[in-house]
Amino acid sequence: MSKQIKYSEAALVYAKIMTHHGNAPFEDSDAQQFWHELDDLVTLRDANAAVEEFYGSHPGTDWMRSGDVNILTRRMRAARIPEQAEIGRLMDQAGIDSEHALAYRRQLIHAISLDQPVKQAHALAVEAAHRQAIEAPKPAKHRPKRYHFAGRGQTQIGAMSLKDTLGGAA
Questions:
Q1: How far apart are CA 10 and CA 4, in angstroms?
Q2: How many domains does the chain have?
Q3: Which has more confidence, 147 or 93?
Q4: Cα(12)–Cα(10) distance, rounded to whole angstroms?
Q5: Are residues 34 and 16 in the same domain?
Q6: Structural domain that includes position 91
Q7: Is the distance from CB of 84 to CB of 14 less than 8 angstroms?
Q8: Is there a single domain that holds both residue 12 and residue 74?
């Protein structure tokens, strides 16, 4: 999976963190490392909100790291996901049956966790549920047994003598 947040966006978040420490020097290599350590699902909006939440509740001496951003953004994504009763109501409203429920739930939760509005995530999930119906596997085609032949392809292995199979070397 590719990263949601681009390097240039992660560098802005990193610079925002540096401003909380007296405009500490911005090192490109540190910003690169910060970006690489961010979870793939982190978005710029969530990362900025995480910085604001962190520094709003921590003393000015604490430094926010990429792990802190990851933890806080995971919590934010989890808080956006509707309760199971709400998901069930949305499924009933769209006529999603039990065969399509898993595809619907996965897409809905994924889209909402990426900060899409519930209405838009619901539309994507309905489409995914109808597109990704899981069908029973088709039975394998019956194939007749094929035997390997030795020599010049005239006789099955084991039907010739060892001398005939190996020639004069036996």
A1: 10
A2: 2
A3: 93
A4: 5
A5: yes
A6: 82-131
A7: no
A8: yes
Residues 29-74: tens digit of each pLDDT? 999 999 999 999 899 999 999 999 999 988 767 889 999 999 999 9
Q: Is 103 domain-assigned? A: yes
Residues in CB range of 123: below 8 A, 6 or more apart: none
Q: Is residue 146 part of a domain?
A: no
- Which residue type is seen at 40? D
- Range in 21-25, 58-62, 80-84, 153-157 the model is least confident about: 153-157
- Residues 16, 51 contacting (CB under 8 angstroms): yes
Phi/psi at 9 (nearest 5 deg)? Answer: -70, -40
pLDDT of residue 98: 85
pLDDT in tens, 109-131: 988 887 788 899 999 999 888 88
Structure tokens at 3: 């990263």
Exposed (0-12), middle (13-18) or buried (19+): which is 98, by Cβ within 10 Å?
A: exposed
102 plus 120 within the same structural domain: yes
The answer to whether residues 68 and 13 belong to one domain is yes
In contact, 46 and 56? CB cutoff 8 Å: no
81, 20, 9: which is closest to 54 by C-alpha?
20
Q: Do 17 and 31 fall into the same domain?
A: yes
Please give the pLDDT value at position 114. 78
Residue 148 structure tokens: 């390997």
Task: Determine, yes or no, domain membership for 144.
Answer: no
